[in-house]
Design goal:
This protein is an alpha/beta fold and 252 residues long. The chain has eleven helices and eleven strands. It has a five-stranded parallel sheet with strand order 8-7-9-10-11.
């Protein structure tokens, strides 16, 4: 039972469409179920949406297509929105065989199925420094959209051509929260944060030459930002940035 289904049940009781005893039985049946489902190699957290507002999200990297499909089938069968990150086309083929409505977002490397979460209050903007950063940016975008957010994209506005981001100041100012994805020296989040009065979530990417150290240089640069209001997630973690942005955007 999802939060929306619980609300609908209570509304039915309030209208008199469902009597209290029947509603009580439905709730008891649900609560008797374990908060997780053990399928041997994984324990699926079916109560995640009650605690955190969104169902369990599956990290696909390192799992076989068969394992991913088995988890996806149980999540979808229980009526939860499905979101699986870092997946391959082979994993999608396996999921599609058991969840016919699944969609593969190739650029984001995400599989999804089911309705988006209730809408947030404003716009989440995802800013990418360069085209090489787009896989991480797309992961953030698809995640944010499935979590119920209107998303605005702003691509290829890195600090090597500062006029490009300055030309988009109005769009930046209209966002409620901004995700900035950048590799190399990781300077773009500081620039963006100095232009706006909303939270900026910085995502370092593993893009760069040798001294970029797989994103560590960008990560350290973002952690040492002198701009106010910059928070930083792990290297290439577009999903994590989108989750935080969605939480902010859903706050009243």
């Amino acid at each position: 039972m999802t939060p929306s289904e619980l609300k609908f049940l209570l509304e039915q009781v309030h209208r008199g469409d469902v009597n209290i005893n029947d509603a009580h039985k439905q709730l008891l049946d649900y609560l008797r179920e374990a908060p997780y489902e053990d399928i041997g190699f994984a324990r699926i957290d079916h109560h995640r949406s009650i605690r955190q507002g969104f169902p369990e999200v599956v990290f696909g990297l390192g799992k076989t297509p068969t394992q991913i499909a088995a988890v996806a089938e149980r999540i979808a069968t229980n009526g939860h929105t499905l979101l699986i990150t870092r997946v391959s086309p082979a994993a999608f083929d396996a999921v599609l065989s058991v969840v016919p409505g699944a969609v593969f977002h190739e650029d984001a490397r995400i599989i999804s199925c089911g309705p988006a979460a209730p809408p947030g209050r404003g716009t989440v903007m995802v800013v990418a420094a360069g085209t090489s950063d787009l896989p991480v940016a797309e992961e953030a975008i698809v995640t944010a959209e499935i979590m119920g957010n209107v998303v605005d994209r702003l691509y290829d506005v890195g600090v090597a051509g500062l006029h490009r981001v300055l030309a988009e100041l109005k769009r930046l100012s209209n966002a409620r929260v901004i995700i900035v994805v950048a590799g190399m020296e990781g300077a773009l989040p500081s620039v963006v944060s100095g232009l706006v009065d909303v939270p900026v979530i910085a995502v370092p990417t593993s893009v760069g030459y040798g001294a970029a150290f797989g994103g560590i240089t960008a990560l350290l640069g973002m952690l040492n930002s002198c701009a106010t209001g910059v928070s930083v997630v792990n290297i290439d973690n577009g999903f994590g940035a989108a989750s935080i942005a969605s939480t902010i955007n859903h706050l009243t």
